[in-house]
TrEMBL record:
Organism superkingdom: Eukaryota
Signal keyword on record: yes
GO molecular function, one term: alpha-L-arabinofuranosidase activity
Protein name (Swiss-Prot/TrEMBL): Probable beta-D-xylosidase 2
Keywords from the UniProt entry: Hydrolase, Signal
Coiled-coil region: none
Domain Glycoside hydrolase family 3 N-terminal: 72-305
Signal peptide annotation: 1-19
């Protein structure tokens, strides 16, 4: 189901590149039918290629499928304080500063402006056949982790220490970024990093192998509510984090990605891994052994799309 949505996003985001009249191109048909038609035309290899290397450094974008007239798609875009790294773009204050205004409407208006720029730039980039990193419509933001430890290097990306406020401002960001067109999202928001993420990143116990032990009470009261709010606001994606939760890596964590996210909260979008987080399930956490074991553990837990970093074996240091 998640793959279906992922491909559907590509459809919305890519201009027609073929005159062929496949049913999946027929805008009079319901999305479900179009997606079913499209997925039925993909080979297994094409499905795998669409789910992996979802946009990062040398590895993105997801490849084109020329015989179906589908262009490449770049899944990795960063919109936390503007259309980051997408050429000249408006730069807004960092999240913790925006949150300090305690102003829902301000966050909403800011996110609308970012979204307009992301969409406009994407129109330009795709018109030029440019699918490089940070040119797409699928934003890896907002960051709604809880600011608990001042030593964490990314506290400035958060909305602070309060789960309720983080969820509230997350909702302003998500609804502003995605827009309110009844049919299309203007740019898609992604709630991250899911979950119990945000501690010191020192080596050797780095963020790539850290295991966060959390009680059910603390998990439910501190680390889940803001994600639930972000999803209830309509965010189409969630990024699973590098760390383990009670011994299970977030990206291989079925309780987190399926039982809570999809079954309990009714999430219908796609789960993308943090960059390199899939291979780190093996090479950082020693939770699995080998690429196939690792990939299948993550897909079976509920991951839809891999954001890859690099295949250089660098992770063995961690
Ligand atoms: C698109 O779907 C509609 C509704 O089923 C149908 O009437 C129409 O003929 C289709 N268009 C094409 C070009 O197949
Ligand atoms: C439009 O895209 C082209 C190709 O990537 C790029 O060189 C150019 O700077 C872009 N224009 C703007 C205004 O971003
Ligand atoms: C969408 O937002 C605009 C601007 O705030 C508003 O005028 C319009 O009524 C909204 N449309 C819907 C369908 O909510
Ligand atoms: C987390 O729990 C595991 C299993 O009980 C334990 O081995 C580990 O030391 C704990 N880690 C921390 C940082 O408390
Ligand atoms: C994973 O295994 C390697 C090699 O045995 C070891 O050096 C490393 O400490 C282990 N990592 C964790 C998080 O247990």
């Amino acid at each position: 189901m998640a793959l279906l949505f992922a491909v559907a996003v590509c459809l919305c985001a890519t201009p027609m590149a073929s005159s062929q009249e496949f049913p999946f191109r027929n805008t009079s048909l319901p999305f479900d039918e179009r997606v079913k038609d499209l997925v039925g035309r993909l080979t297994l290899e094409e499905m795998v290629a669409q789910m992996s290397h979802g946009g990062a450094n040398n590895n993105g974008p997801a490849p084109a499928i020329p015989e179906l007239g589908i262009n490449p798609y770049q899944w990795g875009t960063e919109c936390i304080s503007g259309d980051v790294d997408a050429g000249p773009a408006t730069s807004f204050p960092e999240s913790i500063g925006l949150a300090a205004a305690f102003d829902y409407q301000l966050l909403y208006t800011f996110a609308r402006a970012v979204s307009n720029e992301v969409r406009a730039k994407n129109n330009n980039y795709t018109a030029h056949g440019d699918y490089s990193f940070h040119t797409g419509l699928s934003c890896w933001s907002p960051v709604i982790n809880i600011l608990r430890d001042p030593r964490w290097g990314r506290n400035q990306e958060t909305y602070g220490e309060d789960p309720w406020l983080s969820g509230y401002l997350g909702r302003a960001y998500v609804t502003g970024l995605q827009g309110n067109n009844s049919r299309y999202v203007e740019a898609n928001a992604g709630c991250k990093h899911f979950d119990v993420h945000g501690g010191p990143e020192n080596i050797p116990v780095s963020r790539f192998s850290f295991n966060a032990n959390v009680t059910t009470r603390d998990w439910r009261m501190t680390f889940l509510p803001q994600f639930r709010a972000c999803i209830e606001a309509g965010a189409w994606s969630v990024m699973c984090s590098y760390n383990s939760i009670n011994g299970v890596p977030a990206c291989a964590n079925k309780e987190l990605l399926t039982d809570i996210l999809r079954n309990e909260w009714g999430f219908k979008g796609y789960v993308v891994s943090d960059q390199g987080a899939i291979e780190l399930v093996w090479l950082g956490h020693n939770y699995t052994t080998g690429y196939i074991d690792t990939a299948s553990a993550c897909v079976n837990a509920g991951v839809s799309l891999e954001a890859h970093w690099r295949s250089c074996g660098c992770w063995s240091n961690y």
